[in-house]
LacI family transcriptional regulator (Arthrobacter liuii), 342 residues
Amino acid sequence: MEPVATGAPVTLKDVAKASGVSISTASRALDERGTGSRSAAAAQVRKVAEELGYRRNSFASSLRRGETRTLGVLVPRLSDTVMALMFEHLERAASDRGYFAMVATSGDDPDDERRAAETLLDRNVDGLILATARLDDDLPRRLRQRGVPHALVLRTDGESPSAIGDDEVGGYLAVRHLVDLGHRDIAIVTGPDFTSTGIARLAGARKALAEADIEARDEWLIAAGYGIENGYSAGETLLGNGGENRPTAIFAANDTIAMGVIAAAHRHRIEIGEDLALVGYNDIPLSARLSTPLTSVRVPLDQIAATAIDLIVNPGKEPHIRKSLPTLIPRESSGTPKHFPR
């Protein structure tokens, strides 16, 4: 292997010459977009490149192809556990396909969201993934009009490419579980009514109630935000009126809401899993580590992330709205039939 001049940057030509192959062969062997050839020649090229200290300028090569191999991810906030986990899975799925994912946060204001999207587009990303939640959000329509590749994740507007969990099935599984335990006094704390997730989870919950011939009580259907304070406030409303006029079970439309309900129940000396059955949604890692582990509907975030990336990098496949099935994970918080109904 011929040495490279000291101080000179190692080029692809240097790697090809030292490996005894053409420049095009060396380029294919070092192309990070694919899984890489398993041939002996390709392995030799990669070995030589490492020994010489060659660093591929993937940004420059992508620009020559008219792309940056970069995707922008827009989330309301990374302090939300589900959003943080979602971005991690999106980043991993993008990397597996030879892309880099960068994130921007937008809060809940539509103007802030548009500005964050433009910031990402100014960096020449090849597409946008939107994890923002509002159904009245105008950004997806604007992106469609401009022909910007994009996908919605964990929610859908019914038109843009979307990778979502089947939230109606998830809501059904949660409440069906409570019905099967013998409950009829079931409250539902949904997500915001401006989100597709909140609407679909409530629809599934209502379906399970209807099948069991249980009429939902209006005062036990509470639309809330997805934060822990929203869950605490809903818990106070449902549990603070005395033991004779409260539900025996609550379905909370995400695990953070459920944790707020737990805090309210503790304040009123109500034991989760003994006096009150509780089911959450998303099955974030903390759910299984609570003092009373939380029954939750697990959403396959990794599968959803991979689907969202593919909707951008491999467009044109049907359907453009793809749903992943959730799974109920029973734990102590929903109790057992011997405890319920009271």
